[in-house]
Amino acid sequence: MNWPSAVYQQRVRDGVLKHDEAQERVVLLFDQLCKELNIYQPAVHTSNSGLFGSLKSLWQKPVPSPKGIYLVGSVGRGKSMLMDLFYEQTSVQHKLRTHFHVFMQETYKKFHVLKQQSPKGGDPIPDLAKELAQKAWLLCFDEFQVNDIADAVLLGRLFENLFTLGVVVVATSNVKLSQLFQNRPGADAFKPFIKVLQQNLVEVELNAAQDYRLGRAGDEQRWLIPCNDENTAKLDHIFLRESHGKPIKEETLTVMGRSFVVTKAAGDVARFSFEQLCDVVLGVGDYLALAQRFKVLIIDNIPMFNPENVNAIERFTMLIDVLYEQHTKLYVSAAADCEHIYRKEDRRAFFERTISRLNEMQSQSWGNS
Ligand SMILES: Nc1ncnc2c1ncn2[C@@H]1O[C@H](COP(=O)(O)OP(=O)(O)OP(=O)(O)O)[C@@H](O)[C@H]1O
Ligand SMILES: [Mg+2]
């Protein structure tokens, strides 16, 4: 195992990363966490390690759980990059790194399966937590966020169980712990969970000097302005090129037992209008299925965002989060560039992340691997 700081410094020397003092400070905290994890055994595993393990646990004083890290900061500062660096270097074998949207999807799926299996009225959360903790007791979440009351309730109980089992959590987020799920109906009920998180994670702010996503625009435009015939024709051409001329047909994806119809699919490319994708009742599961099936996505006619239509805007944000995570190549025609599609005077804070991501996704190398 190498210390995260050693790998970070090497990447700076190799010119892969720019030296950044704020990142350097955070990477030292990850070194410290690696050290603590090296000598730590969580409750969930000591109780499962056979006779020798049980005897050992009798004469050894249990080491208290190390506190995880909640890395918060504005967009493009290197939070995910630093967490990934830590994740690669830690000696922990039972580990999981996941995007928070994906984790929630899978957790709901397992929750429903366990609920069906358990006798009437049984509570599946303790089993769910145990199953998860046995697979991985170091959980690294990218983009921790709490979007609705159902997530808030499930998360609160699940995490309490996970921490009791000795699970260590690391997370990145754009939202401070104290601000998670605030100013929403039900926010007060969520406060005890914030406390639990504060007890088990150290909140660290990453105030890196710059948004490292900016300034990488490539040659071919992937965000075409405005929505007119000329740009539709350009997207037709891109569709043909990216799908290597394969026939365009309808394709049905199955998402948690439901059908999600992609009306225009060819090879690894799917094409939708903004309306079809963001102005109908689709959710993160649909977007995930889309991004897992297709490497390239084309969206026609992204209009100026109407601040009244919060659902469409939130769906678009969710879609971009998923596409970013899956490294999907994105081509669009739009009424304005991504900075101006949602007028600054109307827009809510979460959209800054979307803009930052869209900027990075427009670079020439994005999605080519
Ligand atoms: N010191 C650095 N030098 C060069 N590139 C960097 C540096 N730090 C981060 N980057 C790059 O900048 C991009 C954005 O970093 P990253 O995704 O980690 O940001 P983030 O803080 O997680 O942003 P978000 O809040 O939007 O998730 C990545 O491609 C990353 O590799
Ligand atoms: Mg990130």
From TrEMBL:
Superkingdom of this protein's organism: Bacteria
GO biological process terms, semicolon-separated: cell division
Keywords: ATP-binding, Cell cycle, Cell division, Nucleotide-binding
InterPro entries on file: ATPase_AFG1-like (IPR005654), P-loop_NTPase (IPR027417)
Pfam family, one: AFG1_ATPase
Protein name: Cell division protein ZapE
Organism: Commensalibacter oyaizuii
Lineage: Bacteria, Pseudomonadati, Pseudomonadota, Alphaproteobacteria, Acetobacterales
Gene name tied to this protein: zapE
